């Protein structure tokens, strides 16, 4: 497991999920926290990487399977994965020479709940 301590986003100290964007004005510290997550997701490569990891059968994927999907160098892919880890979206574990990645439990659900308003629950892109 990664030795880096990651803060669980979208969750209060008592374990309750945060209120949605439309339910109350966002506090400054919460806005700073969420901006890091959205900044990480604001890059098409990172968004694709997250999607590839999240949609993987078994819940995890080896970096060796991610790199060929892009016309980018391995260090560049590793940098993008590092930013996703720092944003608290994914975690990883080294196994031999390879690193395996997975989406942290509940992260995508909490982000979705934060962005969903009662009126838009059934709206799709």
Structural overview:
The chain is of the alpha+beta class. Helices cover 41% and strands 11% of the residues. The chain is built from five helices and three strands. A three-stranded antiparallel sheet has the order 1-3-2. Strand 2 and strand 3 (98-103) form a beta hairpin. Helix 2 (44-54) crosses helix 4 (74-86). The model is unreliable at 1-17 (pLDDT under 50).
Cα separation of the termini: 36 Å
Mean pLDDT: 82
Per DSSP E runs of 2 or more residues, the count of β-strands stands at: 3
Output the radius of gyration: 16 Å
How many helical stretches? Answer: 5
Approximate helicity band? 40-55%
For the biggest β-sheet, the strand order reads 1-3-2
Classify the beta-strand content into a percent band.
5-15%
Detail the poorly predicted runs. Answer: 1-17
Give the overall shape, derived from the CA principal axes.
Answer: elongated
* Helix vs. strand class: alpha+beta
User: N-to-C SSE series?
Assistant: HHEHHEEH
Main sheet: strands, sense, barrel:
3 strands, antiparallel
